[in-house]
Amino acid sequence: xxxxxxxxxxxxxxxxxxxxxxxxxxxxxxxxxxxxxxxxxxxxxxxxxxxxxxxxxxxxxxxxxxxxxxxxxxxxxxxxxxxxxxxxxxxxxxxxxxxxxxxxxxxxxxxxxxxxxxxxxxxxxxxxxxxxxxxxxxxxxxxxxxxxxxxxxxxxxxxxxxxxxxxxxxxxxxxxxxxxxxxxxxxxxxxxxxxxxxxxxxxxxxxxxxxxxxxxxxxxxxxxxxxx
Amino acid sequence: xxxxxxxxxxxxxxxxxxxxxxxxxxxxxxxxxxxxxxxxxxxxxxxxxxxxxxxxxxxxxxxxxxxxxxxxxxxxxxxxxxxxxxxxxxxxxxxxxxxxxxxxxxxxxxxxxxxxxxxxxxxxxxxxxxxxxxxxxxxxxxxxxxxxxxxxxxxxxxxxxxxxxxxxxxxxxxxxxxxxxxxxxxxxxxxxxxxxxxxxxxxxxxxxxxxxxxxxxxxxxxxxxxxx
Lengths: 228, 228
What we know:
Chain A is an alpha/beta fold. In chain A, about 30% of the residues lie in helices and about 30% in strands. Chain A has helices at about 25-40, 70-80, 100-105, 110-115, 140-150, 165-180, 215-225; strands spanning about 1-5, 10-15, 20, 40-45, 60-65, 85, 95-100, 130-135, 155-160, 185-190, 195-200, 205-210. Chains A, B: Its EC number is 6.3.2.5.
């Protein structure tokens, strides 16, 4: 079986010196990758420079990406040649379009014009007390996966912050259906500590609970295997 | 001599999962620290989690900070008890205040209200095609140094992107005077590659050129020593 795993968090550039980064250590993706490597599978890991990674192995390939754009370019051909995608990467929802002084934005009578602008300076500089950054939604990578390869088994991830379990499951099931995923791993940031990582693996009818990253890796491995 | 060095880049939180980060590997600060350590000085390094750091040594203390707020809290007492500050850290100029849907901003008749708002959600979520992030200027850390300790020898850094040498020197000298620095290390991002790092150490009357990070460390070491 050829297993594709994403981990870490994407970074979207504001200018040459600043970026918006989605925090993710890559720790969970690393542990999942190590589980599949131990079981003798061929693993491809798409990750980021700062993410923690498994030690190199003959059955492991690693690709590094930065932003959503490079993620899509890298992932598309890989999705087509893998059997399973475990998509644990924290992908940026928005990417910077234009940054302007607050006073300039305030005095404009058509804010839409800022959505069509570009910062040509390498490093945006300003003496203004306030600045305004306009951002645009990025393509939802998870929604493209089954279009690229309808046969792939997709395990999506949904991280929310400080919500009820009911709400977490509702959002996860919505993602499951919308993205034609086989499973969604749902978790809440407040349930993640250095020792514990409470998470729920959901399919259409069931919820399976895990309490550590090793647990999560084992659970995904077992359930995906059973499903195939 | 007690040497205080800052390195790496600060990170300002948008919400619990996203931040704006100033890119800086910490490589130059590390090499400068190693130079002073080799010469037998007591070195304190204020840096960030992702920055590269010297190996631990008995005459080296390391403090890790995240954002401008924690930088100021950490740096203030340290500045008071050191003889020299070499401030190579890339410090965020702006910090997020509030994020809102573009349509909400567009339909508002008083944009100032957004500057007084707070995102209470842990993870700001949105289905909107565009979002708007309002940012506020951070305190200029370099301008506080000589107020905290008028006796300290201050070496400031100025990184610009793709400007003329004339403009780079003008901006650096402005910083030298405004912040009562003894030297400013001026450099342009386009002159920094994996092998070379062209930089200019300026005081009121002179410009000294260096072409590698090791060169820069040597130059700062010599000129600061001569000055004292």
